[in-house]
Design a protein that fits this description.
By secondary structure, chain A is mainly α. Chain A contains 4 helices and no strands. Chain A has a single domain, classed as Arc Repressor Mutant, subunit A (Orthogonal Bundle). The radius of gyration of chain B is 20 Å and the shape is elongated. Classes of the chains: A mainly alpha (90), B mainly alpha (232).
Chain lengths: 90, 232
């Protein structure tokens, strides 16, 4: 297996995993990976890592929104809604 | 089975192997991602329409999202609280100008990103340049020519070990250089599109793809070290 092919595959693996490659390129990668044990191993590890990343939640809990802040936000929201309605009727 | 077909099977049925609960496994599934997108869009529509309950749901959902994003970017709880509150205030003050609910989420995160920049303490991990792919490629064993990577088929199988894996992921994310951490959080955690990420960060879609790939490679490498350590 040509080392250059592995390098080219390596550069495209995120798009390959996300299914964002054009069909022709995806098939080319399929063909290479099928016959390249190191690439199979690497793709599987990257795929699992990406899937794990999708579930990432920082180990910190957000605090509650303070009552005073929530009230100020509600007022700003009410003003924006009123402004939107005014624009719609103009 | 072709790698592409296996990829589809993997994504549909087996996100990352045994050892995680059903809820955890479906958490990052394409179906869940699509459902979240639809729910967020529906909430954006209701918020703009002034529907009852939309305000509370939006504040609770996005305060948490922005806080977590800001905490991961700024590293300071106080900064993250301020960013979350400032961002929501700007959103509500300017909501009348938003025309398309499809753009609400990206708009919120663009405001949050800018607020984070004003709080930022320069990260010691920030690279002066984009990392090259060559730097991120796993090494090959000199004699066998095999890649020097861990056995990912042996992912942890108990809840306790999962906790370790998640702690390892948390450390790996925190250790990502800032420009890679930002794209990982927006693209892989918040599930925004490449175009939305490009819009939020003020870079081209090609740059988003380049940085996302490097972020993922760095995370994979860090988790590889963890798995090697667990099974050594």
């Amino acid at each position: 297996m040509n080392e250059n092919d592995c390098q080219n595959v390596f550069a495209l693996l995120s798009e390959y995993i996300d299914r964002e490659l054009p069909p022709g390129t995806c098939e080319e990668l399929d063909r290479h990976i099928q016959d390249c044990a190191p690439c199979v191993e690497f793709v599987e590890s990257l795929r699992k890592s990406v899937a794990l990343g999708h579930t990432y939640v920082p180990g910190v809990e957000p605090p509650p929104v303070p009552a005073g802040v929530r009230e100020a936000l509600r007022e700003a929201y009410a003003k924006s809604l009123a402004e939107r309605e005014k624009r719609a009727t103009e | 089975m072709s790698p592409f077909f296996r990829q589809c099977v993997f994504l549909a049925e087996e996100p990352f192997g045994a050892g995680l609960s059903y809820d955890e496994r479906v958490d990052g599934s394409p179906e869940k991602i699509e459902r979240d997108r639809r729910d967020e869009l529906q909430l954006a529509r209701e918020l703009i329409a002034g529907n009852a309950g939309a305000f509370e749901r939006f504040v609770d959902l996005y305060h948490g999202k922005i806080f977590r994003y800001s905490f991961t970017m700024c590293g300071q709880r106080e900064d993250a609280e301020e960013v979350a509150q400032e961002t929501l205030m700007k959103v509500f003050e300017n909501l009348a100008q938003l025309r398309e609910p499809e753009h609400l989420k990206a708009w919120v995160f663009r405001i949050a990103k800018n607020a984070c920049l004003t709080k930022r303490r320069k990260s010691v991990f920030a690279p002066a340049r984009e990392l090259s792919l060559e730097e991120l490629r796993p090494q090959r064993d000199g004699e066998s020519g095999e890649l020097d990577i861990a056995d990912w088929s042996a992912l942890p199988e108990t809840a306790a070990q999962n906790t370790e894996l998640r702690a390892a992921l948390d450390r790996a994310v925190q250790n990502l250089p800032e420009l890679y951490r930002a794209i990982f959080l927006l693209r892989d955690v918040e599930e925004m599109s490449t175009a939305e990420c490009a819009d939020i960060l003020g870079v081209s879609e090609d740059v988003v793809k380049t940085r996302l790939h490097r972020a993922r490679l760095l995370l994979r490498a860090e988790l590889d070290k963890h798995i090697n350590g667990v099974h050594a």
